[in-house]
Amino acid sequence: MIKSMTGYGKATAEWSNKKIVVEVKSLNSKGLDASVKSSSLYREKELEIRGLLTEKVIRGKVDLVIYAESDAESTPSRLDEALALKYFEQLRKLAESFGQKDVDYLSTVVRMPDVLSSEKPELEDAEWQTAGKVLHQALDALNTSRTREGGHLEVDLRQRVDNITKLQKEVEGLAGERLENIKNRFGQALADLSSPDKMDENRYEQELIYYMEKLDITEELVRLHNHCNYFLETLDEPPGQGKKLGFIGQEMGREINTLGSKANHAGIQRLVVQMKDELEKIKEQVLNIM
After folding, report:
1. Which pairing describes strands 32-38 and 60-70: parallel, antiparallel, or unpaired?
2. In terms of domains, do 137 and 199 share one?
3. Burial classification of residue 169, based on how many CB atoms lie within 10 Å of its CB (0-12 exposed, 13-18 middle, 19 or more buried)
4. Over the stretch 166-192, which tens digit does the pLDDT of each residue have?
5. N or C: less crowded end of the chain, CB within 10 Å?
6. Are residues 64 and 107 in the same domain?
7. Residue 143 maps to which CATH number?
8. What is the distance of C-alpha 174 from the center of its chain?
9. Whether the Cβ atoms of residue 110 and residue 116 lie closer than 8 Å to each other
């Protein structure tokens, strides 16, 4: 089973007169790259939040937002009555000095600096317990989303590995024809360069065997087959095998490239190109696996 690094989760809960909201989304990354945005009330808990991300998300570029929505009526404000009276008296005297009466001083006073100020609320333990539950729910939703996406990735990866295996069998079917073609080309080249009666048959056979062994692709086919099987076995391991799958993909690429360089056969070259195409798509998908 594999798990994608791409996912989204959201959870909410009511507490007192507030609505606590947690949203989290993740994309692929080499390690854990976490960004936490919180309201000032929850800022003191950022280290705890990051520790939870390390435990439950493990890997990926993660953006988490946690905040509380509250009614405007419930936002506590403080009125500095003494300061308001001072402003009132100063404004009244100023108006009288200009001969103005029946002036609405109150609307002006409440807009003066420091007359009205919002009280900074303290985070209560009960509220943080509720927020912690919401946080866990959002991360669980994220992991559920990642697991679901991982299932889609697994289906696609298995299909592409199967395609490479089928192409490999086609290469094996052309191997005999390829060797015969190479042998005939060597014989024709030798015949063009020297007289047949001067050719050393034993030396010819030795040189032919030497070059045939150098151009033999049996080992590459066997190793590629083993790598494909290992890739499929790794898909069944517990989540967290993304980097391992990447390394196996690199080994598959080496064998496919060697097949291409040794091919000396148009049909096999075309099959190798198709293998490379499938492998590139596998590598793209593996980058998103946790």
Report:
1. parallel
2. no
3. exposed
4. 999 999 888 777 766 766 666 665 565
5. N
6. no
7. 3.30.230
8. 40
9. yes
